[in-house]
């Protein structure tokens, strides 16, 4: 099995702590740099890229580009400033895409 | 009818064969779609629960980390976290769910106490807590990534399959059925036309024959 790694992208305040558990951390806060970083990491064969929701908002195209590929899985996580609801929105989007209507989380 | 078809027997046989294939394909695709939706439902529920849990836990970690940063200063913190204590242990693979390749990411580390990657002299206890909490969260984070990616891929494939099913059900199959009906009717019409023509010809020949006989009989009488 090929060795695949996990990366975290975001501002230092939110993602620095991930270093302590052995993930590769990249500090990027500007749209073009984040995009470049995502493509670079995908080329290197990273399995998962956790990205803060704030950073994810800046590069929707880069994230959509990898939606249909098995790797990498780009997963938005809340930044230090709190959750923007982006992850949940994506989840609901998936339900709507698959079923045709949001039948699971109407209350949310 | 949208397209022009040749009303020939060959075309009819070809269309009938295609219709059988289309109907079978439609049934198979429909079954595939139903099973994928079932799988998707299982995964999306797990995804929802995990995301809620992870987001809440990460916020807790962030708060502690911010506290530690306030107590120690940004420079000290980055110094403390400069060197990772251990590599995260996990295995990455691939699994086939209804012909969709989805990733599997399994946490292979044990439950042992987390190693803190720094000495305790200059660090605050909030940082320790943040690190310990985050380590405990790692298996959940990995599972979230796996489940969320699976949901993404499945949703995409379900959409594609549904389009195919609908195209077959509402466009291809009805169109072929109309074409087959058109050809059968056209062929039957041709058949009738030629029968009628034959009957007409026979009548005309019979009439001619009768006329000739009548003439012969008249001649004999004279």
UniProtKB/TrEMBL annotation, chain A:
Query: Which InterPro entries does this UniProt record tie to the protein?
Result: ATPase_V1-cplx_f_g_su, ATPase_V1_fsu_sf
Tell me, what's a Pfam family for it? Answer: ATP-synt_F
On whether Transferase is a keyword of this UniProt record, the answer is no
Keywords associated with the record: Ion transport, Transport
Q: Which domain of life is it from?
A: Bacteria
Give GO terms: molecular function aspect only. proton-transporting ATPase activity, rotational mechanism
Does the record's keyword annotation contain Transport?
A: yes
The family note in this entry says: Belongs to the V-ATPase F subunit family.
| NCBIfam families xrefs | PRK01395.1 (NF002384)
The name on file for this protein is V/A-type H+-transporting ATPase subunit F
Instruction: Give the organism the record lists.
Output: Succiniclasticum ruminis DSM 9236
């Amino acid at each position: 099995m090929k060795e695949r790694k996990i990366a975290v992208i975001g501002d230092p305040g939110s993602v620095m702590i991930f270093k302590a558990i052995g993930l590769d951390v990249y500090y990027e806060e500007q749209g073009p740099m984040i995009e470049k970083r995502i493509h670079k990491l995908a080329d290197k064969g990273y399995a998962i890229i956790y990205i803060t929701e704030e950073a994810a908002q800046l590069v929707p195209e880069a994230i959509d580009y990898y939606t249909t590929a098995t790797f990498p899985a780009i997963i938005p996580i809340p930044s230090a400033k709190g959750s923007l609801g982006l992850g949940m929105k994506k989840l609901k989007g998936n339900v709507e895409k698959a079923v045709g209507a949001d039948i699971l989380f109407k209350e949310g | 009818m949208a397209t022009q078809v040749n009303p020939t027997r060959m075309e009819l046989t070809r269309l009938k064969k295609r219709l059988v294939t289309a109907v079978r394909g439609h049934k198979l695709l429909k079954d595939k779609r139903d099973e994928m939706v079932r799988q998707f439902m299982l995964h999306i529920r797990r995804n929802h629960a995990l995301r809620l849990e992870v987001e809440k836990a990460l916020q807790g970690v962030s708060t502690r980390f911010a506290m530690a940063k306030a107590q120690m200063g940004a420079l000290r913190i980055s110094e403390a976290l400069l060197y990772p204590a251990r590599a995260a242990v996990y295995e990455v693979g691939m699994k086939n769910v209804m012909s969709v390749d989805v990733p599997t990411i399994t946490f292979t580390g044990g439950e042992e106490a987390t190693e803190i990657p720094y000495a305790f002299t200059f660090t605050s206890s909030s940082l320790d807590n943040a690190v310990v909490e985050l380590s405990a969260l790692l298996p959940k984070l990995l599972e979230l990534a796996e489940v969320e990616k699976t949901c993404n891929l499945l949703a995409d494939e379900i959409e594609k399959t549904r389009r195919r099913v609908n195209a077959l059900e509402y466009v291809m199959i009805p169109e072929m059925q109309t074409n087959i009906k058109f050809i059968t009717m056209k062929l039957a019409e041709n058949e009738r036309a030629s029968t009628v023509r034959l009957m007409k010809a026979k009548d005309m020949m019979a009439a001619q024959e009768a006329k000739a006989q009548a003439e012969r009989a008249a001649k004999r009488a004279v």
